[in-house]
Structure formats: C-alpha cells, structure tokens
Design a protein that fits this description.
Blueprint: H1 15-30, H2 35-40, H3 48-60, H4 62-72, H5 80-95, H6 100-111, H7 120-140, H8 145-149, H9 153-162, H10 167-175, E1 181-184, H11 191-200, E2 205-208, E3 212-215, E4 232-234, H12 241-245, E5 253-256, H13 263-271, E6 275-280, H14 283-296, E7 301-304, E8 319-325, H15 339-343, H16 346-363, E9 367-377, H17 386-395, E10 399-407, E11 416-423
Parallel strand pairs: 5-6, 5-8, 6-7, 8-9
Antiparallel strand pairs: 1-3, 1-4, 2-3, 9-11, 10-11
Helix pairs in contact: 1-3, 1-5, 1-6, 3-5, 4-5, 4-7, 5-6, 5-7, 6-7, 9-10
C-alpha cells in the first residue's frame, strides 16, 4: 500500500516558505482577490517581504509567465496553487539566475506542501526543462504581445490607440518597480529640514513638487525619520498634484468625495486650514482615513457614504472646493497594483466611466457658485479622462474647464489625470 507522510514544516525564513506564501497570494489573485488583500493573510510572517517581492514580480510579468507555462506543460494545470508556484519560481529564476539550483530546490520543497506533495515531480521537471530551454522558449514568444509587453491584449490595444507615440513608455513603466516618494508635513517640519534628517539617516533623496521628496531607493517606513510622529507620509509625487491644483485657502469648506486611504485628504489639511468633509463608501477603508489623520495631527469630518447618494450625507451647505478622486481602472498605477492588469476586463472601463459620470452629476450641485471641482483619476485611458470631462462640460452650461493636466507614468511619478472645473457665479 502506498502511503503519504506529512512534510516537515518549512523554516519560516526560508525561500521555500516565501515561495509557498507567494504562490497562495498569486492563486488568490487568479481567483479574483486583490493582491494586498491576499498578502494581508500573511502579515507577520518572517518571509513576508520576500513573498511580497515574488508575488508582485510574478504578477507584473504574468503574461510572460503564463505563456512560458503553456509551452512547458502539455495540459493546463487544473489546480491553481501549483501553477501560481511555478509563476513565482520562473520570476525568481529570471531575476536571480546565479541562484538557479537553490531556486529549483526550494520550489520543489514548497511544492511538497501543496496537494500532499503530488506536484513535486512536475515542478522539478518543469523548472529544469525551463533552464535547459530558456533561450529557445523566450525566442518563440517574440511575436506574442501579452508575453512581450506583459499586459493584456485589450489593454495594449487601448494604449496604442490613445497614445501612439507614448504607449511603449507607458508599458515599460507599468512593468517596472515604482518609485518611493514622501510628502513632507509642512505643518510640522520644512522640506529642507526633513531632507537633512534623511541625509543624517543615510537615506539619499531629492525634492520633487511643492512638498515632496523622492527617495533614491525604497525604504521601510520605520527607517524614515519621524514617520510615526507625522513628519512625512508615503505618497506618489503625481498624487500630490491634487492638493496643489485645488487652489486652497483658509476657511474654505472642502469635500474629498472618495477619500480612502486619506493621503489626498491629509495633504489638503496640511496645505490650508479648511473645513474638510471626507467621504468613503467602504467602512473598513474609511477607518484608514482616521488612522492617517491621527498620525499627522489632523482632523476632518469622515463619513461612510456613497458620494452619489447626496441626500444621505449633504447638509445643503455648498462647498468652495471639491476633490472628485473617482473610482477608475487604475491603469496609471499598475506597477504598484499589477493584479489590476489581470483582474480587469475591457468592459470594466465602460463601467467605471458610468460611475464617474454619476459622481460628477451628483457632486456638481453641492459646489458653490464660483467654486472649483478637481476631477482626478489614476487612469491613462481617455474614456475615463478627457472624454469624460469634455462630455460633462458640454452638458453643463455653468462649468468651465480651467486647467487639465495629464501625467503619464515615468520615473518620478505614476500616471494621473486632473481637470479643474469652475462653476459660474
């Protein structure tokens, strides 16, 4: 009789353990969950940082990894976790070729903890076959758009149509590592003083934007001077443009209509003494707004509400400024959220556009005469940006487009679109 034994637990700080955690996270994404949510299940694990790198890396190049597996395995694997483990291992082999033997060995060890070890032999054979045929396999994929550019075919088609001269740069940025930028809380410290504190801590950085600092290399937040007492926040330099464009002044009544996790709301409060109302439809995410504001020594009226359901949250007093940071495809920030490329479907773009129209139409009556509304997305798709704004301005006789700013993802910042609208007096 054939018997199976329970494998010994993997060392918590081993590569095998990190590969196992990463495989489970990637499998959860393939099943429809977001990557941050999937990784949250492994919070506190000693190998979580390595697992996070493996999961993000495998998903940034999912199109390539999936195409390679299609040529390495005769029939697609019905089980998701062994497939996810192989995707993570292929990423590790390509980024750490000098450690190929260790990567294969540790992946096989991890496979022993999936499906009672039934895939150990398959995993070992697939990875060794890949190492033997690597050049041949990559050459065979030269004409495969999804493998070459590591984005879904429909996504690439939209980028080529919208940005014929820039689409390759957008794709390259989306496949890369994101920069790490900070926003200095100028209520507590000047940017020059904070740059000096970073330098004293051995952290290389430079100024960017009005209140931003761009780090030469990403750092854990506990290495940042004064982070936990509110001297700085992590926020992309492109995202910092929102508060800068709103034309804020003390005493204004301001609405942040989709405020979680609170970065832009905090920046608004750091910029001027305003009366801020922050809305968030998700109660759990709304809690993060309060946590971020508390750390920075700031306060706002945070409400759990759908911005479109105006009657449920508005008291009838108009706002001088509104930030409409609307839900979108997140196509400008996929290097931070690589799961979005593969979780999204093309029809989702039209769905987001409908929600955006509903939000603009609902929020406009709450804006005071002469007030300004900043429409913001982290998308690079025109259907969510310029086309949306043009439709709204054409339909609203009282709306004037004062400024429009398009930021394509590049080295210093992610991709954003901003349109500043003013209501007639």
């Amino acid at each position: 009789m054939r018997t199976t034994s329970t494998p010994s637990p993997l060392p918590a700080d081993s590569l095998a353990h990190a590969l196992l955690l990463a495989a489970r996270a990637v499998a959860a994404v393939i099943g429809g969950r977001s990557l941050p949510e999937a990784l949250a299940a492994h919070a506190g694990e000693p190998s979580r940082a390595v697992a996070q790198d493996l999961a993000y890396g495998a998903l940034r190049r999912y199109g390539l990894g999936d195409a390679l597996l299609a040529r390495l395995i005769a029939r697609p694997l019905a089980q998701v976790e062994p497939r996810a483990l192989l995707l993570c291992a292929l990423y590790r082999l390509d980024t750490r070729p000098e450690a190929a033997h260790t990567v294969v060995d540790q992946t096989v060890e991890a496979a022993g903890h999936l499906a009672k070890g039934a895939f150990r032999g398959l995993v070992n054979g697939v990875l060794r076959n890949y190492l033997r045929r690597r050049d041949e396999l990559h050459a065979a994929l030269a004409g495969d758009d999804e493998a070459l550019h590591r984005h879904p075919a429909w996504w690439l088609r939209r980028l080529r149509a919208a940005w014929p001269d820039d689409w390759q740069g957008i794709v390259a940025a989306g496949n890369g590592q994101p920069p790490m930028a900070l926003r200095v809380n100028r209520r507590r410290v000047s940017r020059d003083d904070y740059l000096a504190q970073l330098a004293a801590a051995g952290i290389e950085a430079r100024a960017v934007g009005a209140a931003g600092v761009l780090l030469a290399r990403p750092q854990p937040v506990d290495a940042l001077p004064g982070f936990f007492v509110g001297l700085a926040s992590v926020q992309d330099a492109g995202a910092q443009r929102a508060a800068e464009l709103l034309d804020l002044a003390a005493g204004q009544r301001v609405l942040d209509a989709c405020a979680a996790p609170g970065g832009k709301a905090a920046h608004i409060l750091e910029t001027a003494d305003v009366d801020l109302t922050a809305l968030e439809v998700d109660g759990r995410r709304a809690g993060r707004i309060g946590e971020n504001l508390d750390r920075l020594g700031l306060a706002a009226d945070v409400r759990v509400a759908d911005a479109r359901d105006v009657a449920s949250w508005w008291d009838g007093r108009p706002f001088e400024r509104i930030l409409a940071d609307v839900p979108c495809s997140a196509s400008g920030v996929v290097r931070r959220h690589p799961d979005a490329k593969w979780l999204r479907r093309e029809a989702d773009v039209a769905g987001f556009a409908r929600t955006q129209r509903q939000m603009l139409d609902a929020l406009w009556p709450t804006l005071a005469p002469g007030g300004k509304l900043l429409y913001a997305t982290c998308s690079v798709f025109p259907q969510e940006n310029g086309e949306q704004v043009a439709r709204f301005v054409a339909a609203q006789a009282q709306a004037t487009l004062l400024a429009e700013e398009r930021l394509l993802p590049q080295g210093d910042h992610d991709g954003f679109h901003y349109a500043l609208l003013q209501k007639a007096r």
